[in-house]
């Protein structure tokens, strides 16, 4: 059974012990409801350090007032069983009070990578993300931290925050883990009805098709993005929040295809929002 920690004191006692034994530390922050994507982050973390700590914290400051904070899936017992199996050394389940001693507010501003895309649809979301990740880093002080490309904009925003705050941590990106039909694994997929789940497979198909036509047929970016949006709309999604081509590092919008560009999408199906992205 993996160690479980609630208080910062319990966690730090063990981390200090490992540190004094000269053991390096990798950190995987999550919101729980773990799936194979999260476990791949843990497996990758084990390749980078002797010890691996996973946090499970549904961070209130990254949810908007109309969002699913209360409904977000919480499956702690199953999560701990999976982390034990995956060989994590410890799981930290902090309280909101210890993370936010002055009340749950975002006190750090996300950088330019937060502009547009999720940042436009979810105002304040990335301020909440950088606030909590900075707080977790201050407590855990890992050598490396792992994040999934599934949340590609989040990854870019965190890299900017680490640079701005000068955290001595290496950020490692892990490619998106997918279901057999290409759907990106997500804690929110469990909300999908059987019809919704069948439809969701279209997201990655449309992304791959659009990337293909831009890259190999040299079709224009604006035209391709528009076509992708129509394909998703016609497939039956309730709303397409965006289909966008961005620079892979700065996330600046691109009007012409260039190697390594990132194609990102967000759609809604009932109350569920699904996001995905691929390298073009
Ligand atoms: P979450 O619990 O959804 O906040 O995710 C915790 C971490 O797992 C983040 O770095 C996510 O990007 C990553 N993650 C979530 N889903 C996947 C996936 N399908 N493949 C790879 N990483 C993922």
Rg, nearest Å: 19 Å
Bound compounds, each kind once, are: adenosine monophosphate
Shape annotation: globular
What value does the average pLDDT take? 97
Record the strand order, biggest sheet.
Answer: 1-4-3-2-5-6
Question: What kind of sheet is the major sheet?
Answer: 6 strands, parallel
What is the N-to-C succession of helices and strands?
A: EHEHEHEHHHEHEHHEEE
- The helix tally amounts to 9
Helix proportion range? 40-55%
Q: Poorly predicted ranges (pLDDT <50, ≥5 residues)?
A: none
Distance between the termini: 41 Å
Strand tally, please? 9
Residue share in β-strands: 15-25%
Quickly give the structural class: alpha/beta
Fold topology:
Elements: E1 3-5, H1 8-20, E2 25-30, H2 36-48, E3 51-56, H3 76-86, E4 90-92, H4 96-99, H5 118-121, H6 125-140, E5 144-148, H7 152-165, E6 170-174, H8 194-216, H9 221-235, E7 239-246, E8 262-269, E9 272-279
Parallel strand pairs: 1-4, 2-3, 2-5, 3-4, 5-6
Antiparallel strand pairs: 7-8, 8-9
The protein binds adenosine monophosphate (AMP).
